[in-house]
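Appendix C reproduces, verbatim, an entry submitted by the partner laboratory led by Prof. M.T., so that reviewers can inspect both the input and the predicted structure.
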Amino acid sequence: ALLSHIFELNLLVHAFVRDVADPERPGVHISHLDFYYRKYYGRELRPQDFGVETLREVVTITGDKVLYLTPKMVLATQLDAEFENLGVFAKIIEAFRRDRAQRMDLGEEGAALKISTSRVGGAGDSGGKGGHYDTRRHSYGGKGGRGKGAVSTTVGGSAIA
């Protein structure tokens, strides 16, 4: 669930910048994150599913390793838009898991994640218009068209949630 969360928000940052193509809008403001998440993925981004209270905490759940908020509260990512290997997300999450496990072993109560099991599900389960962003070709497809409807990500022919 955490891997797909980080991947989806990273993809949202890059897709938004590409779709808008406006230098005055460098990304999604935190106050609009829920709207654009719903627009791109066809489902709601609920902080309660991650055991936190605000969208800001959802963004910074893994610290600033991948996603962060700029001083103007715009969602940003440290990763490039194009990858040769998406395994970088698994490596980042594994490093976060090890750090979290070490903090839990030391008795830090805030280190435990409280991700809801209802959060676990495919991006294609959204019932949206069926559009998708194919990370291999960096193009939009499906009935939803560019930037419209639900986004499901595919790698190697299979959907990633």
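The first helix runs from residue 2 to 20. Additional entries are available on request from the coordinating office.
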